[in-house]
Amino acid sequence: MKYLPLFSILIFSFAQCFGQKGIFTLPLHGQQGIDYFIDNYPDHDTSKGIRDPYCGTKTYNGHRATDFLIRSFKTMDSGVYVYAVADGIVFSKRDGEYDRNKHMIIGRPCNYICILHGNKYYVYYNHLKNGSQLVKVGDRVKQGQAIAQVGSSGYSPFPHLDLEIRSMNGFGFIDPFSGPCHGPTYGLWLNEPAYDTGLYLIDAGFIPYAPNVDTLKERYMVKDTFCAPTDDTVCFWAQMHGLRKGYRIHAEWYGPSGLLWETFNYTWPLSTWNDYSWTYIPLPDKAGRWELRYFVNERLITVKPFYILPRKQNAHH
Ligand SMILES: [Zn+2]
Predict the structure, then answer these.
(1) Structural domains for the chain
(2) pLDDT at 10 over 80
(3) Helices (H), the chain
């Protein structure tokens, strides 16, 4: 304990020396792990490998920015605002580009706003929703001011904000986080979000068809009540944070009165921070309250009920 004061002074001097202190507020509101998720940090490995500022792998090769994800396109449609991280002047922008991309297609232009903050940092707010921008070039913006909404324009597989910070002095990209695998410690956030590598559920539900990732990203026909002959399939899907290669997915389908109807097992093929798994069955002919129990590595992640109505006798008469 007696070393603490000296240690603190050293950290303070180091930060002073680089002129760095917490100055930026977060570009999205809400709670991390619920309203937004950071899935890609800047990559600090200059070779083919990857290393995020916390010495982990929450990045991809050559990534210079930080990706703040939101849950889905449905969430995007509800209007998720992006806020200026500091006072500044709008330096450049682009709008008018398609904003519902679901795959990384190189060369797709993105809607963005670039703000010059404090004559020191250019901050790019990338992948914005088409037509959502609230500022124009030359405008002065205040820290915390809403400037646009999250979208999926450009090189983007789901709605997210890619926040890229560049130094005005031409030193390349700047990582605002303060992890130990950083090189010089920046720590530019006033309230730095926690480094989150947890395994947890982002969202889950049921749909009446065998899906693909695109339909799940759109949340097509999510519901929890099914009925023949309109429906012939019940599919459970789970959007998970932190699935790693080799994790064991297990699901149990229970009918009314607790009957185990079907089980599903799958070994997760690759490490991803935000991905979907699903399992489906033909619509059973037993009406009542059903239940799906979803496990990863034998840990119960969620229990979700769904309902099967008695068959519509007169539907097509
Ligand atoms: Zn990005």
Answers:
(1) 11-174 (2.70.70.10), 200-308 (2.60.40.1930)
(2) no
(3) 4-17, 73-78, 213-218
